[in-house]
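Sample 3 of the quickstart, ligand adenosine-5'-triphosphate:
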Amino acid sequence: MTADSTDPLLEVEDLSVRYGEVIALDRVSFRVSPGEFLAVLGPNGSGKTTLFRCILGLESYAGTIRNRARRVGYVPQIKNFDRSFPGRPREVVISGITGSWPARPARRLREQARRALERVGAGDYEDRPLAALSGGQLQRVYLARALVADPDLLLLDEPAAGVDRTGEYDLYQYLETYQAEHPGVAIAMITHDWEVARHHAHTSLILNHRVIGVGPSAEVLTEDCLRRAFGHMGHAHVLGPDHA
Ligand SMILES: Nc1ncnc2c1ncn2[C@@H]1O[C@H](COP(=O)(O)OP(=O)(O)OP(=O)(O)O)[C@@H](O)[C@H]1O
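Result:
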């Protein structure tokens, strides 16, 4: 079967992941179309990052993932970043082009990285040690890294965590502009902020190990979904008799 522009970019069917007795994801299904902006919401430990790790091919899983994206850009959670890592923004971005850490990058790569950093407003600190950057600055560097490879699917894991209100506003403005300029690009973004999802995401996926709701944000982000998704916060979701 050949793909055309009306095909979903990403199809996830009955995706399940377990770590020992804990079910991180339980038969999760959804689709992402070209040009869509999907918010992924759910309480801490509900499987959101695990879902992204599966899409990136970093986890073993049961079920099916059909990913038709040519390239996937990924912005990890900045709050988990190891600040003792010896590197500079330019090198981070070049590693997004070459797939490896650059020892002596060619001039062409340095230029490409500089332009990518400038586009996200991070041109001023391209050569500063990563350890000296704020959370918001680091987040821009990783956004530049994700975009430099010209992805058609962009995965963002809580990109606004640790970023002030202005930085957060700038980020969403940037993503909206980017999508308008690159109409086929789909974005899936993990967020804890329902208002952000309501305002910026066409569609929302609410997870609590399984799908609590998925569809247009205005229809899915209801009080009932909020209660069902967050009502069990803090409780382990462990194997029941069905999964033994
Ligand atoms: N490598 C692992 N080994 C064992 N358990 C894991 C592993 N990774 C995740 N888990 C467990 O799987 C569940 C889902 O974790 P995950 O990180 O996907 O949640 P999350 O929704 O992204 O959480 P948060 O909002 O806190 O970032 C949790 O119970 C977590 O403890």
